[in-house]
């Protein structure tokens, strides 16, 4: 995960992010919660102050970490450099929001966790400081 994030950042000339064990533990706890309750939704901002969040889910055991990360990084095909939220060739920032969080200039730390059951894997990554702020340049 760290390599995929840093490769995407390097492609646009940004410094690498560092792995943070605390963010990873929080991401894992939330992934476990999503698997346990069968839901798939972002955590409340209040439960993760000063953290951004990316979510991914797929068939249990069917995807590698590289494939999971690629699901987010591949959004770059719709990315247009600019001021958030006007950063997508589709006109919808949601089509690039995972990618912009990965390449957000101000983000310096990440931590991810994956939880599974017989049906699905759920990946949560947390970012600090968070990105995707309206009115700010992505990089």
Name some characteristics of this structure:
139 residues; alpha+beta; four-stranded mixed beta sheet; 4 helices; globular
Helix and strand run: HEHEHHEE
Q: State the low-pLDDT regions, or none.
A: none
Based on DSSP secondary structure assignment, what is the total number of beta strands?
4
Classify the beta-strand content into a percent band: 15-25%
Distance from N terminus to C terminus (CA atoms, Å) equals 20 Å
Inertia-based shape: globular
**Helicity, in percent?**
25-40%
Overall average residue pLDDT: 97
Report on this model:
30% of the residues lie in helices and 19% in strands. By secondary structure, the chain is an alpha+beta fold. Strands 1-3-4-2 form a 4-stranded mixed β-sheet. The protein is globular, with a radius of gyration of 14 Å. The model has no long low-confidence stretch (mean pLDDT 97).
Entry summary:
The protein is of the alpha+beta class. Helix content is 30%, strand content 19%.
What order do the helices and strands come in, and which of them pair?
Elements: H1 2-11, E1 18-19, H2 21-37, E2 52-59, H3 65-73, H4 97-102, E3 109-116, E4 120-128
Parallel strand pairs: 1-3
Antiparallel strand pairs: 2-4, 3-4
